[in-house]
């Protein structure tokens, strides 16, 4: 009978897609995980992975073992819960962008968690570039990300209408270079703004940069420059100044779910999907 700890490392390598990422999941070094897999292979007398650089692929024997390993680990958890009387806590790792209805969405997510005592939420609010990398590494179960339309698989996606936004108290800037208020590098809105200005032959400069929407909104209201943002980001002291600047095609808000996400995470994703449907309908009205 293989050691359950070895089976846990084996399943983690499969789900994470590699030894390094699996080590991060089980809080062990990559070398320790590799040693555990070698020990499991020695115990079973067969190779479980085909190793090609950093990529790993299951052998035929590894594919047969995977189903048994998952069932054995699940049974082990069931036995532990039955004996101890304590239910397993489902940790859901959620990533949301800073500029998407943070207050309302956070309240809905919190209500979801309160209604499910066995769910433990871990929420990360960050730039899309960071959230996307975290989702790809297996560090998030569910994430809302801004991206190019149709850029990949998603549970649901909604078009984003981008607008040039400036101060309601001041006329749009006419000087060159155009002063931009923007998120840091890697933000799709920032990239779209720069490309649009350069395509139109306009010079630009970064007048104000912040990873937080509240900082950008304050800079816009104060007249420090203009920003390319989604309509939902327009606040008090702002106005749309599209007529003075080049047109920009829409981006996309996508709700992505990791392939390894558990049922609780998928239920949360459906709750967020319903919220996003209502929010986009409200903004379009």
Give a quick summary of the entry.
45% of the residues lie in helices and 23% in strands. It has 285 residues and is α/β, with parallel strands linked by helices.
Helix-strand layout with pairing:
Blueprint: H1 4-16, H2 19-26, H3 30-44, E1 49-52, E2 55-58, H4 60-84, E3 90-97, H5 102-114, E4 119-126, H6 128-137, E5 142-147, E6 156-160, E7 162-167, E8 178-182, H7 188-199, E9 204-209, H8 213-221, E10 227-230, E11 238-240, E12 251-257, H9 263-284
Parallel strand pairs: 3-4, 3-5, 8-9
Antiparallel strand pairs: 1-2, 5-12, 6-12, 7-10, 7-11
Helix pairs in contact: 1-2, 1-3, 1-4, 2-3, 5-9
E-strand count:
12
Distance between the termini: 62 Å
What spatial form do the alpha-carbon principal axes imply?
Answer: elongated
Q: What percent of residues are in strands?
A: 15-25%
Oligomer: single chain
Mean pLDDT: 86
**Poorly predicted runs of 5 or more residues:** none
* Strand arrangement across the biggest beta sheet: 4-3-5-12-6
Instruction: Work out the helix count.
Output: 9
What descriptive keywords fit this protein?
single chain, 285 residues, alpha/beta, 5-stranded mixed sheet, 3-stranded antiparallel sheet, 12 strands, 45% helix, 23% strand, elongated
């Amino acid at each position: 009978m293989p050691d359950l700890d070895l089976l846990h490392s084996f399943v983690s390598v499969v789900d994470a897609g590699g030894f390094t990422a699996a080590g991060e999941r089980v809080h062990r070094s990559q070398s320790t995980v590799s040693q555990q897999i070698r020990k499991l292979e020695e115990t079973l007398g067969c190779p479980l992975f085909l190793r090609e650089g950093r990529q790993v692929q299951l052998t035929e024997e590894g594919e047969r073992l995977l189903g048994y390993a998952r069932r054995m680990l699940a049974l082990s958890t069931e036995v532990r819960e039955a004996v101890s009387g304590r239910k397993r806590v489902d940790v859901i790792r959620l990533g949301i962008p800073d500029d998407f209805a943070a207050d309302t969405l956070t309240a809905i997510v919190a209500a979801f968690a309160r209604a499910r005592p066995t769910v433990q939420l871990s929420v990360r609010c960050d730039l899309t570039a960071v959230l996307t990398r975290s989702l790809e590494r297996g560090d998030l179960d569910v994430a809302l990300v801004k991206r190019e339309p149709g850029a990949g698989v998603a549970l649901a996606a909604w078009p984003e209408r981008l607008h040039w936004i400036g101060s309601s108290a001041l006329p749009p800037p006419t000087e060159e270079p155009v002063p931009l208020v923007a998120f840091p590098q890697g933000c799709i809105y920032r990239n779209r703004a720069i490309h649009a200005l350069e395509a139109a032959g306009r010079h630009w400069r970064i007048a104000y940069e912040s990873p937080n929407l509240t900082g950008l909104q304050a800079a816009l209201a104060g007249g420090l420059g203009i920003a390319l943002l989604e309509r939902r980001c327009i606040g008090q002291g702002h106005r749309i100044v599209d007529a003075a600047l080049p047109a920009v095609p829409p981006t996309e808000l996508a709700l992505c779910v990791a392939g390894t996400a558990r049922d609780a995470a998928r239920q949360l994703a459906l709750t967020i999907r319903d919220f996003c449907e209502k929010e986009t309908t409200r903004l379009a009205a």
